[in-house]
Known about the structure:
The chain is α/β, with parallel strands linked by helices. The protein has 7 helices and 8 strands.
Amino acid sequence: MNTIDSRASLLTLLATLSFKLGQFKLSSGGTSDYYVDCRLTTLHAEGGRLTGLAILDLLSEKGIVPDAVGGLTMGADPIVSNVATASAYRVLSTSGAKLIQGLLVRKTEKVHGTGRKIEGFCKPGASVLVVDDVCTTGGSTITAIEAIREAGMNVAAVLCLVEREEAKGRPVVEAAAGGVPFFSLFTANQVRAEHLLHLK
């Protein structure tokens, strides 16, 4: 499956599995006439595979080679696992491919055991792709960016699966990211259009 097929197939799954019309309260406190529950796709066997491939393809296209992928639990959790696993498979099949390790940022530090805020890979100086499932206000993404930098790692780029294109989303994330690239695989309008197409 090539880059275009992976991305198109992922869009179809997001539109059919994750996109819902109705009246919904968002985590930001606002309301919306639609909701995108990306976890229904990223935790789906084929959706997870496509998520990992689509993100690796985008990184390759943009020339970004991070040491790790990470984000705030729990929206980022399946994305992180999917990308890390896809990178391992790609190393086996593609010359010059690189393993991308996974890390998760806790919302609060553990109060027992190691007391860490970051689980998984954590190496000062490493470059990290920060991921999230949906970007609305960017709060979750910014929390992850701050924790990763506090741990001595660098943010290589920021990526979300679906961007809601809210006024406070992308600009706030880009300001917090300090000039590193911000990518979205899809906009909410693209997912909505695909959803409506499949209703016909």
